[in-house]
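Hello forum,

I keep getting stuck at the same step: I have a sequence, I want structure tokens, and every attempt I make locally crashes halfway through. Rather than fight my setup again tonight, could one of you with a working pipeline run this one for me? It's a single chain of 338 residues.
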Amino acid sequence: FKGLSMQYKLTKFDAQIAPDKAFDDRHHSMYCCVGYFNAFVPERPAYRVEINGAAVYYTVGAKRINVLGTLCQYTDEEIDLFCTFLFQQYPHKYINWGGFYHPYESGKYIAHKTAIVSDIIMDLPADEKSYLQSLNSTTRKHVQYYKRRFLRDFPEGELKVYRNEEISHELIEQIIHFNHLRMEEKNTHSDLDETDIEGFYHLCRECGIIHTVELNGRLIAATINPQINHHGHLAVISHDPEYNKYNPGQIALYETIADCIKEGGVRFHFLWDMSDYKKRFGGQLTELYYYHIYPKNTISSLTDKAKCDVTCSLMYFQKRSETGRKVIDRVKKVIGMK
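Reply #2:
Ran it on my machine without issues. Output:
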């Protein structure tokens, strides 16, 4: 391409994307791996471009290029290289890209921040004992107390682990069902639907671990934990509300983290914004950066910037208001943002 001196390799996928272990290992993110793209991103064709040893996957829409993956590891120099390639391929489109752990600040292209989102991260210690000791005294006591209480009151209770091919479609369905019940109990709604059931089933069969609390073979609580290159992810946590007094979800969560440590895990992602239990279990807030990237300022890019600014302001409001979700959904609909 004119003005593009680096070597590149472009591959098109009309169906399943081929395995790419080097890509998965580099980003060590459930949201930035080929298994996730195949399970959750139906748009095809998808493309892979490799430049100077790094790669991105993307799809092409009517107005924009969607770079696949979030919680990803790219330098500003790499982002610039890929943007240069994509703009020369598609000069009349903008790029939707993000989930970076650092702000994109090279200044080479026009970048509008599109979201206020955080990943809640914990670097894992060398052993379970060290992890337990790192928790505050109240959490440490509660973790041990609720596990003992459940197994005391229900001697037939079990803490089980399912990995990859052991994970059934029915198990995923039941976990999502409990998530819906729990959200209803909190007078809110779950974002998980049939698409997520299918997606998590296929992803978990490839790289998933599910920890459960069970009673006579009946599911009481569970976590869905895809693991990529020793990074665990709390994709879903749910439990049967009938057993609230035993905190079974947090029993499953502790077992999930302990197992990650035992298996040599280096980092655990509680994901998407801080909450009380994530903080108590050791999560630290890390901001993520999402952008619409343009080759230059135009009327279209300036209009988009205004929409992005409104959305970010609404997301800030949403995080601090009970009515925030309803307001942001309504306003985003009015201004034409999805």
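Residues 8-117+287-335 form a domain with the Aminopeptidase fold (CATH 3.40.630). If your local run keeps crashing, start a new thread with the error log.
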